[in-house]
Amino acid sequence: MELLVILLALAIGIYSQSSALVNKYMINDDAMQHIYWMRQFQNNGLFINDLLTENARYFLPWGFVFLYYASSYLIDPVIVSKFLALILFPISALYIYKLLKRIANSNYTGFMGAVIFIITATFYKFMIGGHPRAFGFPLLIIFLYCLIQKQYLGAAIVMILQSLLYPVVFLLSTVTYLCTFIKIRDKKIYFDKVYYKIWFFIIATLIGYSLLISKYIVSYNPQLGTIVSRREVLDHPEFYQKGRFEVMPIGSLLSQIKYNLKESIFGYRMVEYLKEHIINSEAVRIYEGIIEPFRLKISITNEIAVIFFIFLLLVGIRKKISFPPEIYYLFFSGILWYWISDYLLFKLYRPERYLQYSVRIIGLIFFSVVIGRLIGGIKNSRLKKLLKIATIVLVLLFFHVNKNLALVDLSQNKELYEYLSNLPENAVIAAHPCLADGIPIFTQKKVFINFELSNPWYNIYWKTIEKRTYDFFNAYYSEKPKHIYEFCNKNGIDYLVVDKKHFQEGYLTEEMVYFEPFQRYISNLLKERKHFILPNMEEQDLLFHKSGITVIGKETFEVIHDSN
Predict the structure, then answer these.
(1) What is the enclosing helix (H) or strand (E) of 396?
(2) What is the pTM of this model?
(3) What does the pLDDT look like over 320-355, one tens digit per residue?
(4) I need a surface site. Which of 394, 417, 496, 498 has the fewest CB within 10 A?
(5) Does residue 428 form part of some domain?
(6) Is position 397 within any domain?
(7) Which of these, 284, 272, 241, lies nearest to 516 by C-alpha position?
(8) CB-based contacts of 50: which residues, under 8 Å, 6+ apart?
């Protein structure tokens, strides 16, 4: 059974990511933020004195960076990032199976839970891209299994790995482990004094917190500054709707729990797949008139998911289904760290991260155990066998759900990337931030700004990026060659990449050309400017021209500026 789970996870994992494995320009968007700069390990001449790279590198956990550094001797880091999920996903599915089998004492329950884990995109999408977050579910699931199995040495080793690879789950695990020392017997509370268990916990916690304090508190980068305070967040539109990250106002604890319960079994891809391929299928449309009055419009809201889980809870109580206390401790830990993170606001990651990992795993466990018990209690052996077969059918039915999950295809810019790759190694390129995202990872060239690394978390860094962005759009939509020349000269820009669609009326009248606060600035610029320089350059001034995208060297503007 374990081998079957591994093979199923591997098959769906490969099927999901097959396009990225054969197409270098198909990639997870977070790789353009976390992975691109690691090619420095193979060529230390890349991205020298690059502020964006300094930011990308600074907050990544030490163990994560070391993993890529060690593997870079043999494999390109970008390739590693594509294959890493294919290793982590089957391991996670295997331990979900082992965990549920241990809790429910049922092979079928373990297998069913593993199948749900495999086909629910909400888990796999976190692993795609090979970034630190990819280790969250695997390490938390393995930790929980070790803790419930009372394999305290294993749990301690996993905790240290968590602190090195993805600290969010380390913080969740420390509180969960700590709670296991509290025992209740005969209505009395006492402290568990198993000494090897205590020492494993102390050693793992000291090592883990020492690593985190050294990495995130003691160290300071003057180019980046400190993490923004709550007051700074409240006053800046980039943290609200239409901003870079819509994190304000922070959702309530209850709304976050409801959302993550829904995601634990009703992943967004599954719902969309049902809508597209069943509810709105051609076969259904043939009988539109007959079916319409009875057809359900699938919309699994957070509230419906909660009602469903309450129903399962009542069933569980009636069936007297019990769960290991470690499950409840993990839930408590998620809530506790949500509150602490909310109070400190971004000093300990974003608050919702703690519930994304804890509640989704708990939701999957709870659902699988209760449904497994209900099926196991059926006395009709034929019906029971039929329901078990339905589990396999479920895999086949939703096999296609995860195709190209969490991937973006930038093949349309292939010729541009190939041209830019041949420019001098230390060239600095200015392009629209969204177009600039793919340049570092596909050309190994520095960019002035891009969208992926326009992160407002560090105050000094963000002030620099903010000014760069205003300066860029002022030059990009300029009517005077002088503005463009001064922009390039002042900022050490060697080449400008221009996409002519950014100057078309239909594009400029869109509600969101870029996120706030820059959208308002761009809108004000466009009220005054209509005759742009960049989309109307003479053909002889263009170094590259393909599908409306052009590359212009700064020398061109120097000549125009001097002639004027």
Answers:
(1) helix 381-397
(2) 0.90
(3) 788 899 999 999 999 999 999 888 877 778 888 999
(4) 394
(5) yes
(6) no
(7) 241
(8) 37, 446
